[in-house]
User: What shape does this take?
Amino acid sequence: MKRIKIKELLGMQPAGQQVLVQGWVRTFRNNQFISLNDGSTINNLQAVVALNSYDEATLKRITTGACLSVQGELIPSPAKGQTMELKVTALEILGDCDAEKYPLQPKKHSLEFLREIAHLRARTNTFGAVMRVRHAMAFAVHQFFNERGFFYIHTPIITGSDAEGAGAMFRVTTLDINKPPRDEQGHINFKDDFFGRETNLTVSGQLEVETYALALAETYTFGPTFRAENSNTTRHLAEFWMIEPEMAFYDINDNMDLAESFVKCLCRYALDHCAEDLEFLHKRAQEEEMTKPQDQRNELGLIDRLKFVAENEFQRLTYTEAFEILKNSTPNKKKKFQYLIEEWGADLQSEHERYLVEKHFKKPVILYNYPAAIKAFYMRLNEDGKTVAAMDVLFPGIGEIIGGSQREERYDNLVKRIQDMNLPEKDLWWYLDLRKFGSAPHSGFGLGFERLIQFVTGMTNIRDVIPFPRYPGNAEF
Assistant: This one.
């Protein structure tokens, strides 16, 4: 008999069908009632073992965490809260689990503890739900771009350039770190290294995917990126995934249109395809909210936040307009903001972004035309000479979720920005070449996938939305 997934089985009408299910035991009560889950759904299947049908030694092996193969008859359930149950006719234990040593007992565990056993935490309801939603969102990303004729580009993970100019990169080398070769000046001689030069793990695939946008027009990359920032926060990871579309012939307005359509589509997809998991995560988030001070609680529940994005037109305004709103706002005047808004050019913080979204406009916001001094070298300088055609998409609960810009397509302007920011021009020769040989207006943006999953699942710590988090002091598993 072929195995059937519990998700599929729970959609059937119980009428005495003979079925085979396989999964892991969540609980076993009264030597009769097995709660079984195979990961396909948040919901468990109750399998009922007839009394005296198995010897005591076999029953003792049916413990939380054990893996079973169960065959039986699918019948209507007399118990409340479930429409069906499996009347067991044959049972095989595929994998034993020592109940006394198994870390996942049938009780509530802290998220901090579960990070220590990341190889097992997917068996909990919370992490099973998060990872199913993560899968759904990854699929929705590719579907969105594929339906619009974009091409998926695999950009390099090992690179010689720093796309952000931040310098917080992980070095890649085959040199003996205890006795590296040195040149006459005493500097490490990377000519003897595997690639013959200094190389790092990428912080972004943007610059490389731009090269393909200027050949294939509409492209995107979706891959792992790495930042060696010593940030022990709930919002930062050392290894995370980035979605970065780059489009030729798009100006800043086209870019904003695409970004708005993109995140609306993703939120709709989650609402339409992850309803059961979202309902569980919504209740979980509600319980967590109740432990926070009143002024730190989200006004909208998880599902309402997704609808808030999917169903509202985004408010668009310039950085300068937002600056004036924030400067004159009650929280700023009463010094309630942690970072007071005083002078034009200040980098906006999450509290400011959330105020604009949640209090002032009560809809998602896109800010554009930021001060050039606080943005990256590749962003197009506006005619005023002091702002760039940059845009950020702001969401409730988290603030910025997307950052992007129209890229600087003018060779001389780009060279000047590189020089002004003291970046190594020689390492960016190929990027400058794009402006010499058939340059075109083009735009793009970046969306941190884990930030998106945080928003969709309501998880407050970014370490809990990636299977194996990497952060300062932790590279376990």
